[in-house]
Amino acid sequence: MTNQSIDQQAIERRREKLTTDSARIIDIADNESHSALRCIHQLSVAGGATEATYLAIERRIVADQDIAGAYHLALLAQGTSDLPIDVRQLIEMVVEKGDNQQRLALLKNLPHPPVDSIKSQILISDDGEAIGQMNAYLQINPEGYGSQHVLSAQPDTVATMSTGFNNADDDSK
What we know:
Blueprint: H1 3-31, H2 36-46, H3 51-64, H4 67-77, H5 87-97, H6 100-109, H7 115-125, H8 128-140, H9 147-153, H10 168-171
Helix pairs in contact: 1-2, 1-3, 2-3, 3-4, 4-5, 6-7, 6-8
C-alpha cells in the first residue's frame, strides 16, 4: 500500500467521522431546545463540522434567543472566516441582550468589535464596575481593535539582566 493510498484512507475516515458527528450535532440542535452550548462543545470536541452543523446551531440560538450560545458561537467564528452563519446577528444579540461581562469580552476579543454599540449598552446599564473596565480598556485601545490587535502591536522585548543585583556567590567570598 502506498503512502498516497494510506493518506487517502485517513482522509476518508476523517470525512466519515465528521459526517457522523455533524449529523448527531444537527439532530440535537434541531430537536432539543436550549442545546446550543452543548452543540458548540461537541463541535469543538469533534474538531470541526459541516456547514449544515453551524447553520443548525445558529438556528437553535436564534429560536431560543440564547445569548450565551450567541456569544460562544460568535467567538468561535472569529477563528474561521468562511463559516455560513450571520456572525453580525449573533454579536448584535449579545450586545443588545447580553450582560456587561459578555459585552466587555466581545470588546476585548473581537478583532473589530462594534465599540459604539457596546459602549452605549454598558453606559445605559449604569454599572459602575463595567463602565470602569470599559473605560480602562478603551483608554489603552481607543480604536477598540480587540486584544489580538493590541497584543500583535506590542513589540517583542527581551529582558536583560541588570548588573546592579548582587549574586549570592559574590556574598560568600
